[in-house]
Amino acid sequence: MIFRSVPRTLLRVLGAVFLCVALVGAAGCGGGQGAASAPGVSAVRTPDWAEGMATVRASDLPRQARDTLALIDKGGPYPYRQDGAVFGNFEKLLPRQKRGYYHEFTVPTPGERDRGARRIVTGGGGEFYYTDDHYDSFKAVLR
């Protein structure tokens, strides 16, 4: 046998490690922070920039917010002239950055005659945030 010269204790430890890895992989746990635990739901790790914040998966956002994300990914064109404007973070709810780091985009609200309260705010490092209450709160968007 190939393992004849390997001490039994080492074989037991390696066997236990292998078993643990196999069980964790089969359960889909991942063990990472922010990993989904519901069966059939893909795990999305919470990025460092979103630690301590409420989060939302992009797929769980309202359709209009997902449409706005798609427009941002394409680089426009945007339906509102204010889209892409610098977001000042005056509420200080997002991590502090230099002016010009954040930009805001309108998420249309059905039934509203104006831009409504919903926005996507992007950060210069690839961050995405969603607010549905005109900057009173934010959720980090997990993509």
Automatic annotation (TrEMBL):
Keyword Nuclease: yes
Keywords: Hydrolase, Nuclease, Signal
Metal-binding in keyword set: no
PROSITE patterns: PROKAR_LIPOPROTEIN
Position of the signal peptide: 1-26
Gene3D superfamilies: Microbial ribonucleases
InterPro entries with a match to the protein in the record: N1-like, Ribonuclease/ribotoxin
Name assigned to this protein: Guanine-specific ribonuclease N1 and T1
Organism: Streptomyces bambusae
Organism classification: Bacteria, Bacillati, Actinomycetota, Actinomycetes, Kitasatosporales
